[in-house]
Amino acid sequence: MKKEMRTVVYDDELRLEAYRFEGIVQPFPNHFHEYYVIGFVEDGARELSCRNREYAIEKGSIVLFNPGDNHACVQSDGGTFDYRGLNISKETMLELAEEVTGKRELPGFSKNVIYDEEAVCYLRPLHEMVMKGAGDFGKEENLLFLISLLIQKYGQPFESCIPECRQEIERACEYMEQHFAERIYLNQICRYVGLSKSTLLRAFTKSKGVTPYRYLETIRVNEAKKLLSEGIMPVETAIRTGFSDQSHFTNYFNQFIGLAPGIYREIFSERDGEGGPHEK
């Protein structure tokens, strides 16, 4: 079986993350991100679930995830998976969108899986330049061409990508976002929003595409990414994000992000030094 390799680079100039996964067999559970994901499948086949729709992705597929899009995937061909991906924060995307459209509005992708050879012509060289640490403006040029093409062909107002939610569900999200570092019980959330446990679970899962507990886990992992990028040690990060212990934290972080917390932290701690991409 092909050797598993995971490489991640943060580009200070473009302010985005580039992922390169090779030989992966790990499934990823249903979760979401606070940022945009633009990914390209180089080899392998997977079953992807996104926003409660099922897709078969394979070599040549481009995946587009808006912030908040719930998704999960599992290998479907008995082999391994090779993947390139770009993670772009809302702040960075807002600036890119303004640059290419003249409007300071977040875009939303209308499709989650596309096949577009023109987009690949920008995406692959851009990804390679970021991974190699290229310093010329060629990578920025490719990024702007890529975003311009995706917005033109698949863009819509970001708000239209967000499902309508009842007030109680938004209050439940608000409660978890405010108390994620604490030990939270389901009955606490139910009392806060005024719903029974069964009603909350059904309504929340239908609205958000993930269960309340998975939503809480995702909030904690996203917050952990921020702390690790600031140089906080994994042990302290686990405590500050509400995980019961470091082992629990490490397992969830690896499931959602595909990297161990310590490896993710090193990406940022060595950006100003001579350290290069990490493999595991």
Can you offer a commentary on this structure?
- The structure is a single chain.
- The protein is globular and about 55 Å long.
- It has about 280 residues and is α+β, with helices and mostly antiparallel strands.
- Strand 5 and strand 6 form a beta hairpin.
- Helices cover about 45% and strands about 20% of the residues.
- The relative contact order is 0.14.
Name the features.
single chain, 10 helices, 280 residues, six-stranded antiparallel β-sheet, alpha+beta, four-stranded antiparallel β-sheet
Produce a short descriptive summary.
The protein is an alpha+beta fold and 280 residues long. It has helices at 90-101, 117-132, 138-154, 167-179, 186-193, 197-208, 212-229, 234-240, 246-257, 261-269, and strands spanning 5-11, 16-24, 28-31, 36-43, 46-50, 53-57, 62-65, 71-75, 81-88, 107-109, 113-114, 155-157.
- Unreliable segments (pLDDT under 50, ≥5 consecutive)? 274-280
Following the backbone from N to C, one meets helices and strands in this order, namely: EEEEEEEEEHEEHHEHHHHHHH
Helical residue percent band: 40-55%
Average predicted confidence as pLDDT: 89
Span between termini:
15 Å
Number of helices: 10
Shape: globular
Number of strands: 12
Describe the protein's topology.
Elements: E1 5-11, E2 16-24, E3 28-31, E4 36-43, E5 46-50, E6 53-57, E7 62-65, E8 71-75, E9 81-88, H1 90-101, E10 107-109, E11 113-114, H2 117-132, H3 138-154, E12 155-157, H4 167-179, H5 186-193, H6 197-208, H7 212-229, H8 234-240, H9 246-257, H10 261-269
Antiparallel strand pairs: 1-2, 2-9, 3-8, 4-7, 4-9, 5-6, 5-8, 7-11, 10-12
